[in-house]
Design goal:
Length: 569
């Protein structure tokens, strides 16, 4: 008898139907030589410091740093009943093999392994690793189960991440809370993210707008304008010197070719859903997860934007169908070397025959965007003819730019998401040497613009590229930035929940509490560069290139040094 453990009840139900375990029992399904049960999120959590010693129940600087020689875990109170079911099943004499069917990623690995260890299970371990909940994908996954130890490094990475977060949270949060007599929460990823928001808000608050001027000439069908002129006197002098005609000195025409974007990973999906629909990163993740469990899209928690080469035939025949596509793009989009744990997010083959009218409109919007993005990714380039008209007078350059679309290419799939704002005008046929009548001359008063507050779209992008400047440009890294695609939404929501930031329509603004925390936290614990470096090391641990021990020793050293400095002061 084999025991299959999924991450959620809904996933367990889907799996049980495919493998024939159709008899419902208390906390599991049974049949055809299988039992299928489930976790409910993180059943096992790291123990609080007072589990090691009662003295830690009260927060004191003198007790810091808290660095256990061996870490303890405990069953979450809310999930004790389901853990008892799993423990009994795992240690049942009839069970000879336990199959990990939790989400195929770092956290899914951690959820299963911690239950396996906490239950003192010694049974043979197998791993189901799939990127789709389609029936065919589940069947294929069970036909190709991996040995559990293949993913030992992934679990090492997950443990290293959890312990690092615990060490920073328990030590640095207590340090600043005791020093400043206020309940502060410091996080390995959370605090550098907050620091970026505070820095941006400070730039906006301290921004001093500067006045400048442009001289604009209204001609027949278009407008010529100067660049920035700082002096009103100079602008007025230029305007007065101009007569009723001006000569065109240059006409620059170019063909602009724009290639399509790749399909979505989770971060780019979250960004575009925020931009087009106003969804938060967490809402997008929830909708995508629901679509995945309904077998309508592939696994959403991915940081890859390419598909594997063995998917070409199925994707072209069953999803792209008769739609015209660029064969040159196939080689770019289907590139196995650029796929990490999971490929890009695309519709499933089975979704092509589903009636999508029954799903919520919020999920339908996400599904359509994913589908349109895939079609666009293999589309032909957008081809535009751009024109820049230049007239020079008294050392000043007057210009006007415009464009004409020659071939809409891939953009035909994305029309409903494209903004018509800031579209460049179509300019009339003008030649060098043409002398044109100036119908009107005007001085426009303008101001320099402050930076914009972060939205979830722009913050997710900033988190993704945070710390990149400090990385070796010759080394290509798969995971970089603050957090991972799967955790960034939770980090933003956590900052809001703890009162460090708040939503103002689409903007994310730091609160007074958030600003005061960033003011007092040591640079190393609010540094995007250092946290991005830690995230790279976690990726290296998962790939067997680095060790959990060395990673944690580095973090322990940072914590000890920081606490020592404050104690000395």
């Amino acid at each position: 008898m084999k025991l299959v453990i999924a991450e959620k009840p809904s996933v367990a139900l889907s799996i049980s139907k495919i493998i024939g375990a159709k008899n419902k029992k208390d906390g599991y399904y049974e049949g055809n030589g299988y039992r299928v049960s489930w976790c409910v999120g993180h059943l096992i959590q790291m123990a609080n410091p007072d589990s090691y010693d009662e003295k830690y129940a009260k927060w004191k600087i003198d007790d810091l740093p808290i660095i256990p020689s061996e870490y303890q875990y405990e069953v979450a109170k809310a999930t004790k009943k389901q853990f008892a079911v799993l423990k009994k099943l795992m240690n049942d004499k009839e069970i000879d093999t336990v199959i990990n069917a939790c989400d195929a990623g770092r956290e899914g690995e951690a959820i299963f392994r911690l239950v396996y260890l906490q239950a003192s299970c010694k049974k043979k371990m197998k791993r189901l690793w799939i990127s789709s909940m389609e029936d065919s994908a589940i069947k294929e996954g069970f036909d190709n189960l991996k040995d559990g130890n293949v993913y030992d490094n992934l679990f090492e990475s997950a443990q290293a991440r959890a312990i690092a977060d615990w060490l920073v949270g328990m030590n640095i949060s207590r340090l600043y809370s005791c020093l400043y007599k206020q309940n502060y929460s410091v996080g390995r990823v959370q605090t550098p993210t907050l620091s970026m928001i505070v820095k941006r808000d400070d730039e906006i608050a301290n921004f001093k707008k500067e006045k400048y001027y442009t001289v604009e000439l209204e001609l027949d069908g278009f407008t010529l304008s100067t660049e920035r002129i700082n002096s009103l006197e100079v602008a007025e002098q230029l305007k007065n010197l101009l007569e009723c005609r001006i000569e065109i000195t240059d006409v620059i025409q170019k063909e602009k070719v724009t290639k399509p974007d790749l399909p979505f990973d989770l971060t780019t999906l979250q960004r575009e859903c925020n931009k087009h629909f106003g969804y938060s990163a967490k809402q997008t993740l929830d909708y995508a997860q629901s679509l995945y469990e309904k077998k309508l899209i592939t696994y959403p928690r991915t940081d890859s934007r390419c598909l594997t080469e063995d998917m070409i035939t199925s994707t072209v025949n069953n999803i792209l169908g008769k739609n015209d596509f660029d064969t040159e793009r196939i080689r770019v989009v289907f590139n196995s070397k650029k796929v990490t744990d999971h490929h890009a997010i695309i519709p499933t083959v089975s979704s092509m025959s589903e009636d999508l009218s029954s799903i919520p409109e919020s999920e339908a919007k996400v599904y359509r965007l994913i589908s349109n993005k895939l079609h666009a990714s293999v589309g032909y380039p957008l081809i535009e003819n751009t024109t820049k008209i230049v007239a020079t007078f008294d050392g000043f350059e007057f210009t006007s730019s415009g464009k004409v679309i020659v071939d809409e290419g891939f953009t035909k799939y994305l029309k409903e998401y494209m903004s018509k704002k800031n579209e460049e005008p179509v300019l009339p046929e003008i030649n060098v040497g043409d002398v044109l009548e100036i119908k009107e001359k005007e001085i426009k008063e303008k101001y320099t613009q402050a930076p914009k507050h972060f939205t979830e779209d722009t913050l997710l992008k900033a988190m993704e590229i945070a710390g990149n400047d400090s990385l070796d440009k010759n080394v290509e890294v798969e995971r970089k930035g603050l957090g991972t695609p799967a955790t960034r939404a939770g980090i933003i929501e956590n900052l809001i929940y703890k009162g460090f930031i708040e939503r103002d329509k689409k903007n994310l603004i730091a609160t007074l509490k958030g600003k005061s925390l960033i003011e007092i936290v040591a640079d190393n614990f609010k540094s995007a560069e250092m946290t991005a470096q830690w995230e790279m090391e976690l990726s290296d641990i998962a790939q067997g290139k680095s060790s959990k021990k060395e990673f944690l020793e580095g973090i322990e050293a940072e914590i000890k040094n920081t606490i020592t400095k404050y104690k000395e002061v």
